[in-house]
Amino acid sequence: MNKPVVVIGAGVIGLSIGWSLQRAGKPVIIFDKGQAGREASWLSAGMLAPETEMGFEDEALYVLGRESMRRWPGFVKELEEDSGISVDYRSNGILHVADDRDALEALKRHYDFQKELGLDVQWLSGAEARDVEPFIAPRLPGAVFSKTDHQVDNRLLVEALMAAFIKKGGKIIEETAVQAVWTEGGAGITTDVGDRVEADYVVVAAGAWSRKIGGFTEEGKPAVRPVKGQMLQLKMQRPFDLQHVIWGRDAYLAPKSNGRLLVGATVEERGFDAQVTAGGLYSILEAAWRIVPGIYDLEVTETWAGLRPGSRDNYPILGDSELPGVLFATGHYRNGILLTPITGDEIAHRILRGETSEWLKPFSPSRFSHQHSIN
Question: Is residue 202 part of a domain?
Fold first, then answer.
């Protein structure tokens, strides 16, 4: 009972699990192959948009996302109290805009689907949308406004989770890759520097790298692949002062209170290639300029490519693996920031109480057990 929980991966998912457990008095050690929180979590846009992002066949994921969204205000309150760091949680909504007639028809179909499900979304004409956000392009024909979709500063979120976790007594070991998990006579991990660490439970939360952890059968490995996303950061300068997240057909813009304006993102099946390309940046800049032309003269301050962890069905993989005492919390794809509160809560609940909640059951790793394994 004195053994810690070992978490593999110090992104927001691993950190939230660790923080939840430490708050309950359960000791946790988090290992990361690089610098804590500097992969997909650091390179995302921080949008909390279950309604805007909902697809026609994503009802199960939407239910999970909406519940996590419900938990976000309380999560922020507790996190900011424990860490002393504001995460710039902004609840002023998201504008999903159409930039031409074809996009408008697609947006209307999506809006009708949202309304059928009872979602709190509002149809706006182009003029009404510009009343909400004056910086969108004057020719845009229409938009959908979701007041219940919010955003957070993802980098402040990483810093706050690290601070809160450490203040509660948690330990982070960086620049140390976990090579394998083992379960002979218990559970534990081995590292690339030869350490063998015993654990009460092991949680694999290594994002796109989760499948590289050894110790599983081929079928038992988490069905996760990297999905590349190129993004860039602009510096907002008055009179340009975008206030809302703007979501277009081929790009989105997410303004932060410290003047950062994030523009993204490509979706590329390129394996572990994280190169920034001229074509990738051009595609998102051109698409963003069509919907918010005022970005034309803003300074580019940073560019990057991140690797999202996508599963076979692009739903998260949450729960018990084939190995006793080893859990998965990975495969969050485009929703890692949104699903941070519920993943941290429910994986901690599984470890502390030995119960798998109803929230996790639709996302069990066992749903892939009879499918052809990934090479």
Answer: yes
321 found inside a domain: yes
Position 78 in a domain = no
The answer on 15 and 140 residing in a single domain is: no
What does the alpha-carbon distance between residue 181 and residue 190 come to, in Å, rounded to a whole number? 6
Q: What is the CATH number of the domain that holds 361?
A: 3.50.50.60
**Residues of the chain with confidence (pLDDT) below 50:** 371-375
> What's residue 1's pLDDT?
55
- E strand or H helix at 65: helix 59-83
Closest C-alpha to 238, from 292, 294, 293:
294
d(CA 340, CA 351): 17
CB under 8 Å, gap of 24 or more: what pairs does 145-148 form?
145/93, 145/94, 145/95, 145/96, 145/121, 146/49, 146/51, 146/52, 146/93, 146/94, 146/96, 146/119, 146/120, 146/121, 146/122, 147/92, 147/93, 147/120, 147/122, 148/51, 148/69, 148/93, 148/120
Tell me the C-alpha distance between 87 and 77, whole Å. 10
Q: Print the domain residue range for 303.
A: 94-147+225-311
What is the pTM (predicted TM-score) of this model? 0.96
Identify whether residues 293 and 357 lie together within a single domain.
no
Apex CA 369: angle with CA 363 and CA 370, to 5°?
125
In-domain check, residue 66: no
What confidence score (pLDDT) does residue 373 get? 44
Do 213 and 229 fall into the same domain? Answer: no
Q: Note the pLDDT of residue 370.
A: 59
Residue 216 to residues 47, 58, 131, 309, Cα–Cα distance (Å): 33, 29, 55, 18
- Kindly state whether residues 34 and 48 are assigned to the same domain: yes
User: What phi-psi label fits residue 13: left (phi over 0), alpha (psi between -120 and 50 degrees) or beta?
Assistant: alpha
